[in-house]
Amino acid sequence: MHGANLIYDGTFDGFLSTVFTVYEQKLSNVTIQNETHSQSLLFAETEFIPTNETQAKRVWKGLIKHLTFREASVVFYAFLSEQPNVENILLDYIQYIFKNEKGAGEDFSHPSVLKIAQIAKQVGREKHRMEAFVRFRLTKDEIYFAGIEPDFNVLPLILSHFKKRYADQKWLIYDIKRKYGIYYDLHSVEMINIDFPDTFDFTKTDETYFSEAEFDFQKLWKSYFRSSNIEERKNMKLHIQHVPKRYWKYLSEKQPD
Prior knowledge:
single chain; 257 residues; 5-stranded mixed β-sheet; 3-stranded parallel β-sheet; 8 helices
């Protein structure tokens, strides 16, 4: 029997719309792929599934009936991991949830339940790191700017944290890898895309774009960082464990004078 290769637009609503299609058309032997890196499969009929918010909400409401809030958030966290084949693990997870009584989301003896929990935990860890390691720099337009390059697509998960913490100033956090950002204008947060100049270096504080006050602040921050770290007690292994080196190029205290 031929399978179905379902392509969606890469959004969470698009994924849920695809799950709706699986149930509506009673499909089996299904593969779900993000359109940005989809591959043609032998002996599979390929179909693009348009995003339908009504259908997506129906699937989500169905999940909420079977899952606790924490278990439902695991689904979203795992989706944001962008891990290869995560959509199909999620589909298996969702089908298992719908087939069973409430509480199936904690049945870690089921391979997909365990795998989704493990992936979501990794994403949660990255979320907390981003909340701790984002370093804003003041631009000449009076906007606090930060570039990040997380392993997972965590911008949707950290926007609430920064909106609460920096409610009195305009800020922009930009995901360099995924080429989009979240911008707060003192009222609301929106997703934006920016075409940066080819010469723009996210790791440098260029006087062309950043305020003079920012350079003074960075000097103060570096001075504070040095004075608060006792050289004799430095434990680099522990330090790297808490602040992995891949984040250093975006931390102002790690930049050379």
